[in-house]
Write a structure and sequence with these properties.
homodimer; about 400 residues; alpha/beta; Aspartate Aminotransferase, domain 1; Aspartate Aminotransferase, domain 2; 2 domains; eight-stranded mixed sheet; four-stranded antiparallel sheet; about 45% helix; globular; disordered N terminus
Chain lengths: ~400, ~400
């Protein structure tokens, strides 16, 4: 049957399998992109849900407008404006996590065989979101300053039909690197020149440890070509499933129509509770707490890697976000090592890097998350893995 | 640009516009499919959200498996089994409302130009969900016993490429009619004969006023052809956005892959709170309350229609659900009457029936909801509309 054919190459969720491993308490998992649950503002959310449920007329339990509660859209516009991307409630569409924005973008812009341009490596969840649209990929390597825009120029010249570029400019998933100011301008210029829509995914943007925030691509957008995606998953809690898009009116209108079609609306209760949180509590205070905690954990992980891993293993030193990216010596297979050694012997999980490459996997890479585990577990897990690696490379 | 072309004929949400009207407190709206907010189990949900947020390790605020919390899937399987459709947690996929199941079904089964078979009229939200897949429609009229399966047989013979049939067998939206036992068997036999996938949408199934529940199509399914969609929106609260699919393993696996792609997961908090509600409270008690209240309101509305409307206007007398379907004399235009008379003069809203017909609108029809308004408002609104209709038909 046709559906079988169509869905045959949807990728099984490697993320899902690894998240499942993370649930085994005897494994120290650096796999998922989990925020630290001990930092969740639980008491505040409890108060917000109580207040939302008690709202007049049961309004927070009833249906709501498909594009989201107007008050919350205004609050998000306020956060975006304060972050240097001026917009109003009219420019905001509430999504079921920013993941839904990736799905909508592909459904709007990509027919089977069309080219999507991504960083190499890129966010696995985006590849999963795009897969039902059956794209081809053109990929651009990253270095310490993010996507190599000099190579992007060549890639676009070689792929004149490309219509969509996907990027995580701040503390990229999986590499942790940030697109430099110069390259942000170059990327926008190339998008204008090649008639591209740019999907800017920013779940980690607020979690900056050091240095100054760089302008969003949306704020540099001169032709309404950037779909900016934001999320409360990392700065509030993932379990709310609240994200948003900011885009030019024609794009946002079409995403709004897809929202009605796809699931009618995001949960009224969750929108109402998040909106109350933003009214009653100081999100930037909470984010400051997260920054301090994750910066400290990042240092713990990088110190432990330097102490315990073979010298030949390199790790990125991100200025923010949740991940560091490890490169092992050529010939090392991080997938086989996890299956054969890391999981059964060291009792440690990570995400083998191969899964993040749309075209040509680099088996000697891996993504390590430092936000989910305690400093003690980070030290213990990295030490155990270091012993296994030292033995492997003896 | 291509996205403009692709999205050009996505239907603007007539439901959305009418829901917006319902928010004007000076209008008595029979338009939306809103449940009665005064019956929401607010205190119980407040307790459930508090308990969920306090769960060990912040688990209800964290990411969760994409197919849904296992305990909730088991509870839903228990409800389905008690309703005569035996299944296990493995057979259940949690969705962002059953609307998401409509989107997934079309994405799995329909390419542009493929035929979807529906009741005529049918649920507008389904037409909106299917529209991005650009189907053609083949329609089957309904009578007091639901879809005319004798005509369905002819329609399938005339459309040998049809692959998907969409139906609301219980208290259909918009007509309120229920598919008879004999026709349920005939529908399954025809699906087997013509190699169809049947999407069975059952949001109102539990809200039965009179008579015995009929078997779900899923329970009669002999070849794994029925995708059963269920929802907590009408029996708990819509603001949770919780629905589910029960389907054969191959179909459910493919819907599960689309779930990962579309939004990763439904809200952990909402799943956890609903699961606690099912553990701590008696859903069937709550449903019994809803049945009594909606049955009484239905009687109030039909009595008022008989009393105030011209004799030539007929209304269905549903055995359950949220809607009655009105047929006005030939030549009456329910859309124009709403715009020109009902809204500005009588201050009453309903849904003009034309919007529910995939192919050929019947302008002299309308859908009236009786669940949302109080008995007093129902009487007042129907009386005001009756006066306007009597004047119109003088």
């Amino acid at each position: 049957m046709k559906y079988a054919q169509r869905m045959a190459d949807v990728r099984p969720s490697a993320i899902g399998e690894l998240l499942a491993l993370g649930a085994d308490p005897s494994i120290i998992s650096f796999g998922g992109g989990y925020p630290d649950a001990s930092l969740f503002p639980a008491k505040a959310l409890e108060d917000c849900f109580r207040e939302a449920i008690r709202a007049p007329g049961g309004a927070a339990m009833q249906y709501a407008p498909s594009n989201g509660l107007a008050h919350l859209r205004g609050q998000i516009a306020g956060l975006m404006t304060a972050d240097g991307t001026p917009c109003t409630a009219e420019d905001v569409l509430i999504l079921q996590g920013s993941q839904q924005g990736l799905d909508f973008a592909a459904r709007m812009l990509v027919d089977p065989g069309d080219v999507i341009v991504t960083e190499d490596p890129t966010f696995l969840g985006a590849l999963i979101a795009f897969q039902p649209s059956q794209p081809r990929y053109a990929v651009v390597p990253v270095d310490g300053n993010g996507m190599r825009t000099d190579i992007l120029s060549d890639v676009l010249a070689a792929n004149p039909g490309a219509r969509m570029l996907y990027t995580v400019p701040d503390f990229q998933n999986p590499t942790g690197v940030t697109l430099s100011m110069e390259r942000r301008h170059q990327l926008i210029a190339l998008a204008n020149q090649h008639d591209l829509i740019v999907v800017e995914d920013t779940p980690y943007r607020q979690i900056r440890f050091t240095g100054d925030s760089l302008p969003t691509l949306k704020s540099l957008d001169t032709e309404g070509r950037v779909i900016h995606l934001g999320s409360f998953s990392k700065v509030l809690v993932p379990g709310l499933r609240l994200g948003w898009a900011v885009a030019a009116p024609d794009l946002l209108m079409r995403m709004g129509l897809l929202k009605v079609a796809a699931d009618t609306q995001t949960s009224t209760l969750n929108m109402a509770a998040a909106s109350l949180f933003l009214d009653r509590y100081d999100l930037s205070d909470h984010i400051a707490t997260l920054r301090r905690a994750y910066a400290a954990k990042k240092e713990v992980m990088l110190d432990a890697i330097r102490q315990h891993f073979p010298q030949a293993v390199t790790a990125t030193d991100p200025e923010g976000g949740l991940f560091t990216w490890l490169t092992f010596p050529e010939g090392f297979d991080a997938t086989a090592f996890m299956r054969d050694v890391a999981l059964p012997q060291a009792r440690v999980a990570y995400v083998p890097g191969a899964t993040f490459f749309p075209l040509t996997p680099r088996p000697n890479t891996a993504r390590f998350n430092y936000s989910a585990q305690s400093p003690e577990k980070i030290q213990a897990g990295i030490a155990a893995l270091g012993r296994a690696l030292q033995a492997h490379f003896l």
